[in-house]
Amino acid sequence: MRKFFALLLASCLLLGAETAQIQLLAEKVTRSGTKVHADGDVIVYYKNMILQADRAVYDTNRSTIELFGRVTMMRGMEYAMLSDYIYLDLKNEHDIFKDYFLTGFQTQLWARGGEAEKIKDELTLDKAFLSSCDAACPDWHIEFSSADYNTTTKWLDVWNPRFYVKETPVFYLPYIGTSLVRERKSGLLRPSFGISDRDGFTYEQSLYVAVDPQWDLEITPQYRTRRGAGGYATFRFVDTPWSHGYLKGGYFKSNQSYVEEYDLKNSSHYGVELHYENSALLFKPGSEYDDGLYVDITYLNDPDYINLQATTSAELAGSPQVQSRINYFVNTQNNYAGLYGKYFIDTQLGTEERRNTFQNIPTLQLHHYQTSLLGLNFLQYSADYRYNHFFTESGQHIQFQELNLPLTLYWNLFDDYLKFSVSENLYYSYSSFHNLEFQNPADAPKSNYYSLFRNYHTLDVYTDLAKSYGENFHTMQLRVTYDKPSFSSEKGDTIDSIQVLRSPRENMIMSAINYLYDAAGREFLYYRVAQPVLFEPIEEIEEKFNRWGDLEQEVRLKFREHYEVYTDLFFSYYLHNVSAATSYVKVRYPKFDIMVNHFYKQRLDLDRASPTYGEVVRTSDFFSVNGTWHSESGHDYYGSVSYDNLESKVNRWGVGAHFYRNCWDLDIGIRDEILPILTSAEKPDNIHNVTFYFTINLVPFGAYTHTIQQGL
Known about the structure:
By secondary structure, this protein is mainly beta.
């Protein structure tokens, strides 16, 4: 211990003016002129650095330190280095490293090379390689001619990188640049590659601009060797702490030869999108009023505007129709007001047909929540008013207004075991229409308005029961609801375009809902049954009537923590068969999970012009299976398939695997895709592709995606 303090004291005396910045400890410290020599277990403390070496030389005049033999350096929590030789110029902040191994504490990267140099904040590595895998035997590494790393901005530039898997070279790039911290930086983003038998080789790479924390801009040009070129731009913004949005636009020009080969309607594919959400537009959060604005507007000339920018199958256009929406609402404790608008574009329609497409702008809703009347809690009322304006660009107009006023009386019997409610429902609607066009003039209404006043009575009787059975707990609700139409008055003429909310026919619905919970409070059984009874039977066919509605039974069973079985089944007394059913089975284990779905629906064909009139026809019948296997090594293998029983064919399928390692992960697979396109005949068509894809994520550089498509 005396030797340690003696060495420390000797060092401090020798270093003189530098005592506040540097401390040097060693088994032997000597001085020769302006140089201090330290030998044996040398330790140097300087600012946030700790260095260890076999030997060191400190020049007090030039403020430089040279360290030799098994040199270790730690610079705070930024990085550590092993080297044979380190030169530190403390005055000019100029460092030199030879035969080094460098590792970052936060970046997960390490680098090995012959020589490196650091001038102030810039660290330069020459002819080295780097990786984030096990240094003894890395799964991947990058060899490069030079790399520059800014220790302040955490930005890494790599020149002439060659990517290796083990010892096998995979691909080369002239340059890559990336941030080693999760912060937005301007620059080029990772490129994306693809190969398609229709479009040829595809290349796209985004230019990212982020100079302000409240907005950024992404410009993505793309080139398809067989098809053409184009690009997309996305401007994202955050204007307040409770609102955000983006504006996107794009244009793609297809070659004329491509247009003719595939009979496309348009050679140019373009569109504009605006998305905005604000949860406190006019009133601050926490105030008496709560309001919000939602904007989702899309204008495009055909579905390829969407398909050409899609990177996953979920982003593909599902149909040639697009809907735009604008919604605004104001909400208080007792009242609600909403103003909405919908605009539709059907790209498969011609110019004149689009002019006759009905738009819904605006829709106004005013609602008063259920409130006690005259201060009586057992007497409740509510009110709802709606106004809809439908119009076409050709000048057709429909205005529709409706008012709904229910008044409800509540009371309980037998210590709340039995609950009653009686409602008087008043409904009024008024619609007017102008300049409507009909293919058959006989379908035109004789008057330009229609009004309806109607009221109906509702009786609701129900009970909520709960009881424990050992460690299990059971809740049950039994309910009977009866609707009885009353006075009705109609004036004018109605048209099929207006769906009037008429009062229900005289009917009764009996239902029961059951829940069973285990000792931990987890649901293990849910069962619901509902039976409608129609006192005004609906004519089905040839004067045959159906008094009983479809019996519905819904069951969900969870057992042994890993299994779940569900079905929602409708039984038709008229068909003497199941009319609809939705079912699934889930199995979840740590090593795998699988889900099997089935949807089935059939109905009675009432179309007299149909060849199956009067027969029971299936309208839907398909299965789907999805599963994932979690291997012991941490990798996932997954697959899915959908089979249509009506068409006796496989609709969609896909298989793949996701491999996970500390320094990389790889998602690779094959799937089929169906893309809608627009042909010159202005009829919707589809492209059926089989797509091979892989996405590799190299930590911390990010993910690279490549796809290969083959048409069927």
